[in-house]
Amino acid sequence: MNAKPAPLSLQLPHGAVTVRLIRRARQSVGIRIKHGEVELIAPPAVPLAYLQEVLASKRDWIARHLARHHAEQDERALTQGQVLLGGESYRLHCVAASRHQAQLIGDTLHLAGPMLEQPARLAASVVGYLQQEARQRFAARLALWQPRAARPLSGWGLSSARTRWGSCTGRGVVRLNWRLVQAPESVLDYVIAHELAHLLHMNHSPAFWAEVGRLYPGWQGARQWLKQHGDSLFRYG
Fold first, then answer.
1. How much is the average pLDDT of 113-137?
2. Of 65, 83, 143, 211, which residue is the least packed, with the fewest Cβ within 10 Å?
3. What pLDDT was estimated at residue 144?
């Protein structure tokens, strides 16, 4: 029987990733990417410090394979003709054109542009549309939430982090991951409340979570949605 996985992590250019450790009777240490997760298989007696060094030595290999996995996953989703926006699924309709255009009509996102038959071009076009929508929708939600915050924001912007949904600096600048535009609005609101709470508490202490609760009572359901579905949100680029 395999032992309970121990906590390991690896810092990559887009953020830290959790590594699942599997202890197994074998002669060497192995690393694999399985379903988008990093797994490290090692003999029971190998110390964690050494395993962390092994991970560090394979950082570039892991980053390349994770990026390839996510790109393939995103392109596969696009070939199925579906795009998520605000928690709703929309059909994707593409036409050839000399200039990029995007318009949401009913239940369909209409995209026009050159060479959209190429998965990478199509993905880039979808990302551009989603990021444009994120700027507009996030600005509107922040305008509603800011009056509730204990301190005013100094500014905000979009983030493309792989592993963080939001961040808040000591100067009061909040960044929100553009991929959240695909999630239900309640999930976006939770992340906003989470970062606004950091304006008062730059930690995750009981006082911080009390402030999250003051800002957004019942936030737990949105947080659980993000844990269950966040990794499936389109992340190309």
1. 89
2. 143
3. 95
Cβ neighbour number for residue 223 with a 10 Å cutoff: 17
The two beta strands, 108-113 and 88-96, are parallel
| pLDDT at residue 92 is higher than 70 | yes
Cβ pair 100, 125 in contact under 8 A: yes
d(CA 213, CA 65): 39
The count of other CB atoms within 10 Å of the CB of residue 164 is 14
User: Average pLDDT in the 44-69 region?
Assistant: 87
Integer angstrom CA distances of residue 237 from 45, 51, 228: 40, 30, 22
* AA identity, residue 218: G
* Main-chain phi, psi angles of 220, to 5 degrees: -60, -35
**Phi, then psi, of 191 in degrees rounded to 5:** -65, -40
Helix 119-145 to helix 185-197 angle (10° resolution) is 60
Within 6-87, strands assigned E span 7-12, 15-23, 30-34, 37-42, 82-85
Q: For the chain, what's the residue count?
A: 237
Q: Is 31 a residue whose pLDDT tops 60?
A: yes
